[in-house]
Amino acid sequence: MAAAAVAEGFWGAVGNTPLIRLAGPSAATGCEILGKAEFMNPGGSVKDRAALGILQDAVMRGQLVPGEPGTVVEGTAGNTGIGLALAANARGWRSVIVVPETQSREKLDFLRMIGADLRLVAPKPLSDPGHYVNASRRIAEEMAAAGERVIWANQFGNLANRQAHRDTTGPEIWEQTGGRIDAFTCSCGTGGTLAGVGLALKAQNPAVRIVLADPAGSGLYSWVKTGEMKAEGSSITEGIGQSSKVPGNLEGAPIDDAVRIEDPEALELCFELLLKEGLSIGGSAALNVAAAIRVAKAMGPGHVIVTILCDGGARYQSKLFNPSFLRERGLPVPVWLA
What we know:
The chain is α/β, with parallel strands linked by helices. 41% of the residues lie in helices and 15% in strands. Its cofactor is pyridoxal 5'-phosphate.
């Protein structure tokens, strides 16, 4: 998929991100470990693809009309909200974004900066009416009842999310590797990226291994391994993992295996890639790379493993690069900040 010479605004600039060879992880495993640089999307993360796919679907269904009043409502850990708000701005719509107040300050400040109507809620379990997803659905329902043109993006259950990755991310990876890909690793929040890319790659070659990367505190690793959701431990990563329910976008995904990555392992990679390869990535991206290394070592030298570099490290400066925050949790501190 060749990128157009000139992109048409936000909607035309999402996707066609490069694959970056990760020299250190590749040398350590004897494999080619490649990261899809999703932090280069216009909104700064892989979630721009889901946001765009959901809004394109809403337009196709007549739920939103470009240039006419409309509102997009969503509950999010931050990145999907950023993508939705920017994509909505570009079509003349408002955005109401509901986020847990525990998310990084940088993401919250960015949402305010780009004009989203930001609603902060206390962190609650999914079964609680106050959970950010439930709160966002309720807001959308109330607005619709008042006669407003509104959609609830519903990124966890809206299959336009994974379809966006099936249509774009997966085919891009296949083309960029010339079909030479043996495995794909990715963590899951909504499951859209793993499911969509997995479906696209398996359609080209059923032998490509699709491996779910999961942080501590999430039950998806257990779900893949045993069929039951069982969460253990905790993680500082934001926007990935599920403790109680398998997202709709992940149902029926062609997953071959799962690996669990602890925070210290991911953080060491986050710092190493920054210092040695000049790549500033967030915690979920580092976790994805750690999973790719695990898979590469299990498969043996000579294989090609692709993973997702979800977003950049600047979005987590107050956490991942805050020595006090890390020390309080017994986590490694970057040597240049120690």
